[in-house]
Amino acid sequence: MHKLAAITARETVQLTEFIALLKLEQDALKRADAGALPAISEQKLRLIEALNAIEKERSTALGTDPGENVRSAMMRWLAANPEQKDIAAGWKNLMDLAREAKQLHELNGQLIKMHLHQTGELLAALTQQYQKNTLYGSDGQASSTSGSRIVDSA
């Protein structure tokens, strides 16, 4: 097996695992299960580190120049080696998985923004309600009102 085929195969396994994790994250976000997110984030970081290491390995195998885009280098290598159909197929599959991961990641980001927006609105409503219902009593201390003038003045 060619070295690039082995690298692409390992990267495909890692990316597939990353996609599964993004789907778990999405399920947790849909359920508003904030308790599940720290462990998922930890696993995501581990997988991102592994994917970065594999990409660096592919860059070395391709002999890319410093600062050269690894994807461009891979496309250039595939164009120069058209007989490597298994590597080309693996690369296409990898790019399809990368697009799926990107879409899931963006959707999860939108879900997080939605939760943050709702939380902000709830906090604003609670803060306004607290400020609106706070009066000072005869002792100079803040006290909440009940909303009834008769009860509050008693």
The backbone outline, from C-alpha atoms, is elongated
Q: Work out the helix count.
A: 5
SS elements, strand count: 2
Tell me the strand order in the biggest sheet: 1-2
Q: Mind describing the biggest β-sheet? A: 2 strands, antiparallel
Q: Please trace the helix and strand order, writing H or E for each element.
A: HHHHEEH
Structural class by SSE content: mainly alpha
> CATH superfamily assignment?
FlgN-like
Integer average pLDDT: 86
Topology:
Elements: H1 3-30, H2 37-62, H3 70-80, H4 85-132, E1 134-136, E2 142-144, H5 149-153
Antiparallel strand pairs: 1-2
Question: Keyphrases for this structure?
Answer:
5 helices, Methane Monooxygenase Hydroxylase, Chain G, domain 1, two-stranded antiparallel sheet, mainly alpha, 154 residues
Description:
This protein has 154 residues and is mainly alpha-helical. The protein has helices at 3-30, 37-62, 70-80, 85-132, 149-153, and strands at residues 134-136, 142-144. A two-stranded antiparallel sheet has the order 1-2. A hairpin with a 5-residue loop joins strand 1 and strand 2 (142-144). Helix 1 (3-30) packs antiparallel against helix 2 (37-62). The mean pLDDT is 86.
